[in-house]
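Database export, one record per block. Field names are fixed; values are copied verbatim from the stored entry.
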Amino acid sequence: MNNKKMEKYLIKHLIFLIGDRSLSECSKDIGIDILDLVDILNGNIPSLESLGLVCVWSEFDPFTLLNVSAKQFPCLIEQDLSYA
């Protein structure tokens, strides 16, 4: 799957998870600014921190989105992302 298709998949996945909730409520749950969430939903590239928080919240594999193997970055796999 190429990156454009993966980005669209992430956006559709986020829209599904957001459902009837407000963007403001979801951005607070994710831990990012509402404008960052709107940018992501509009297909703009977020900061790595925002992308990481969105991936943790949505249980979306960031390695798939970035089109790399998790084996290339073992230090990231071992990180505790439970802060999100």
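Remark 1: The chain has one domain: 3-77.
Remark 2: Residues 3-77 form one domain.
End of record.
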